[in-house]
Amino acid sequence: MLGVPSKIFFLLYVVDITSSFNINLEIKRELPSSVALSEIIEEFYIRNALDLDIITCSNDVEGTNLIVEFILRNIQESISYRIEDCKNLKDSTKRRFVLIIMDHLNTDLMIEELTPNRFDYSGFYLIYYIDNQSDIDILHYLFKKLSDLFIYNVNVICNDSSGIQLRTFFFFNERSCNSTDPVVINKFENNRWTSKDFFPRKMRNLF
Fold this sequence. Notes:
The chain contains four helices and eight strands; from the N terminus they run H-E-H-E-E-H-E-H-E-E-E-E. It has 207 residues and is α/β, with parallel strands linked by helices. The protein has one domain (31-206): Response regulator (Rossmann fold, 3-Layer(aba) Sandwich). It has an eight-stranded mixed beta sheet. The longest helix has 46 residues, at 3-48. InterPro entries: LBD_receptor. Pfam families: LBD_receptor. Keywords: Signal.
């Protein structure tokens, strides 16, 4: 009579081990960029903001939730936060310190929701493409759209063959007054960013 329960227990054990293995693989795959993301929140947002607006705009709900959960575990009660979906943004307040987690297919949708009654265009925006689709063409398109809105303080966490990098654009520079060329301003190496200057000044040459 003990044989059947033992087999059932063994089957459940194997299923549980398999499920845990798959979950661990998923977390391990996302972990480096999630750690990079959390460090920017800890080093910049928590030190400079009273609250953080986390906007999700991705078709990968499970992957997005994994990243958000990882972030919340790390920041705990260090900063107030609000989590919203890009399709259901409220107009109650302007968002100034913003983290956007999205996939590249929703870039246009997210930009359409960046209305002046909802967002402070002089704020600080950090964008993470969950599908790692952040090549030069996508960044050019994104930065052009944001520059049209006069949103300049924006960084994108890129995770590609070059490693994890932070890229932005300098609209005003020595060679141009309307550049949206992606520029690497930081690298995530040995589990840390090489610089703590996450949002460099971009208007210093105008004064």
